[in-house]
Amino acid sequence: MQKFIYKKGFLPLAIGAVTMLASCSDSHFEDVNKDPNRPENATTTTILLSAEKQLIDNIRNENSSLRGSQLFAQYYSQNIYSDQSRYDIPRTYSDTYWSNAYKALNNLNEIIILNTDPAKRDVASAGVAGTNQNQIAIARILKAYAFQGLTDVFGNIPYQSYGNQDPEFQALQQNPENLSPGYASQQKVYLDILNELKAAGDTLLKYKTATTFGNYDVIYKGRNESWAKFANSLRLRIASRIRTKLPAESNSHFEDALAKGVFTSNADNSVFKYQTLAPNEAPLYRATVTANRKDFAVSHVLINVLKGQLGTVKVQDPRLPIYAAKNAAGEYVGQPYGLPVAAAGLLTATDVSLPGTTVSAANYGEVLQEYAEVAFLISEYKNWDQQAYINGVTASLQKWGVAQGDITTYLAALPKADKANVLNQKYLALYTQGDEAWSEIRRTGYPMFLVKSGDVVWSRTVSGQTTDYKFQPLFGQGVPLRLYYPPKEQSVNLANYQNAVKAQGNDDITTSLWWNK
Prior knowledge:
SusD/RagB family nutrient-binding outer membrane lipoprotein; two-stranded antiparallel sheet; mainly alpha; globular; TPR-like_helical_dom_sf; two-stranded antiparallel ribbon; Serine Threonine Protein Phosphatase 5, Tetratricopeptide repeat; lipoprotein; single chain; SusD-like_2
């Protein structure tokens, strides 16, 4: 297991990679390019800039996103190599996600340390950085976001809290030799994340007209009020995830977050926007365009839904030409999902629809959370409220730049709000956000139109002979419920790994997480 404290000497990779992202003045570029191997030169502004990019790069990285959650959600499908589509997930995929998540978390924790150290806190709050308490609040929000991602992938995890001194919550110790932190249960992690977000959001609401980190904050350009709305909107997501397990706590946080202010339009969306110049291009662009990889296409499931041939909306979705590109014949054709390897390459990249130019652009803005999701969460909370449902669909269409006339036509064809229809539309809105889509599929069981074991995914006729290809998972019988722990945990943190497995269940992809049991 990697060390759980990364001193500022770790920062060269990320700081060098994000120099262009901050849109800083020339004087700020000088700050970003100071020698990061000298701890006294790593300011909280540059650490935040580094941590934001580390965090978003990681949740959208090729292994965990393109080869993981985007496939599990059946947004994409593989051609040529299709093992991951059928849930043969190499255990090494977990290493990258786990290691990079904790690197980002340690950088965020460093911001908190610098702002609480009496000898350094005055320096930490100098310039555009903002007050100590506001810097700490933003770091806590991003830590909560990162920890939720980790626990939704693995379950019980090493965890660290700012406001709770529980012995299980001290993974990010300022101790270079802390190679074997214990694992906190997912239930405890979830409850503490909710409290962290509440406390951080409340702090920022007190100073909502102030700015923190300035343009070094790529996501919100330092706007405290926007960060507070993000914290409360995340509470809606997390509270919904645990409603069946802890209904009282879920409802309390949901109501409190609504009262204090959540996203109300796309202007509130939490987005990390990449750039067109290396090394700051978006992850999907780097994984496909830069690498000239064409073995991931839009799945036949998503294409057929967008065409109105599958699901409950029977007209073409105006997001189709945005989500997918036409094939060489000028048509939208999805790659059959989860074909056996022998059949996966029978359709070439020119036969099927690759991701659309908008989503595969170098300067794509990766979404942490958006208003459409918030509206759908509110619709669910209010027993499938019609107006919130319409708000969510409208927000998604507007976000993708759909013309107003097409929005009106599509809304007129929508069936009335109910569980299936709201969750189907939420699934479509979460396109590119594979991590959240995968979690919602596990939580709700929707959409029902996703491919299941034994379903025919492609019928191919050659010389009058038709062959039906069925979806047959290589492991398990359905969508993976988690990923394996990183193999290195068994070599350097064996006792705590074994305790986690004993408490949670076998370390495989068929073991349900706490909130999903």
